[in-house]
Specification:
single chain; alpha/beta; Rossmann fold; nine-stranded mixed beta sheet
């Protein structure tokens, strides 16, 4: 069952697919935002950006701290300022198992990583469920989105974006399914969840440069204050894999930015433009 919500400010339509069923994970809402219709191009098809923590994207009344990301406004501004068609945004709500679903299981694949697993199980209430979550995305949700909406379904037009743990699972998705995702945006990536072991496990598994775009950023306040050393380590892995800063990879530091929807709302236009190849 779906509920359709029409925004009154010209920023398109959000369609809610309530309790989207899955064989792999617990059901959760999926919100799909479509850009304002272009009467001059009725057959237009769009890139797709899959985003985690979907309840925080469009409606402040649903958001964690009462501030949403304003994704609809951000994409609409890019359309208005550049004349580009924008993208469809798929907001996947999180579940009570968020920590387990977003934690890359690769962090525990090595001997040193396995020593961290008991601590993670104690904190999260069980082992990582990232493999199951990604199977939900690629085997169930993406085929539904491509069959239901006017998408450009190929790798070069399919992206993923998230913050904190959502940044981790976005990078993990690209590594696990490099033929499905053309780029990812990882805002305030929560590297301390697995510390250097996690950074190195993901870095060593990066697909070689040439077919993907990767965006990372971090602030300097609250949780983000701990991220820079880990991000600089990931930057070394990016260079080793052949990525070139400013071309197919971007890492940005935002001085004074905290770990919150306030901060991500203020800068989300940067990864959106980078992934979509929009000059702004």
């Amino acid at each position: 069952m779906s509920d359709s919500i029409q925004f009154s400010d010209g920023t398109g339509i959000v369609i809610r697919h309530a309790d989207f069923p899955s064989c792999h994970v617990v059901p959760r809402h999926v919100d799909v935002w479509c850009p304002p219709a272009d009467a001059t191009a009725p057959a237009l098809r769009y890139p797709v950006i899959y985003m985690h923590d979907g309840q925080n994207l469009f409606d402040p009344a649903l958001s964690f701290i009462g501030i949403d990301w304003g994704i609809d406004e951000a994409v609409t501004r890019l359309i208005q300022e550049t004349g580009q068609p924008g993208a469809i945004v798929v907001g996947i709500w999180n579940s009570p198992l968020r920590w387990r679903e977003y934690m890359p299981h690769e962090a525990f694949a090595t001997a040193s990583g396995r020593r961290l697993l008991p601590r993670f199980i104690e904190q999260a209430g069980g082992e990582p469920l990232s493999a199951e979550y990604l199977r939900f995305l690629v085997e169930e949700l993406k085929p539904f989105i491509d069959a239901t909406y006017p998408t450009l379904p190929d790798r070069s037009h399919t992206f993923m974006l998230g913050s904190s743990m959502g940044g981790l699972i976005s990078l993990h998705a690209l590594i696990e399914y490099p033929n499905l995702f053309g780029g990812v945006g990882c805002l305030s990536t929560h590297w301390p969840a697995g510390e250097k072991i996690l950074v190195d496990s993901l870095g060593a598994a990066l697909p070689g440069a040439g077919r993907h775009k990767l965006y990372f950023d971090f602030g300097t306040e609250t949780l983000d204050a701990a991220y820079e050393p880990y991000q600089r380590q990931m930057d070394k892995w990016m260079k080793k894999a052949g990525y070139v800063s400013g071309r197919d990879w971007l890492t940005r530091k935002f001085d004074g930015a905290e770990h919150s929807e306030w901060a991500w709302r203020a800068r989300v236009h940067v990864p959106l433009a980078f992934l979509l190849g929009i000059e702004c």
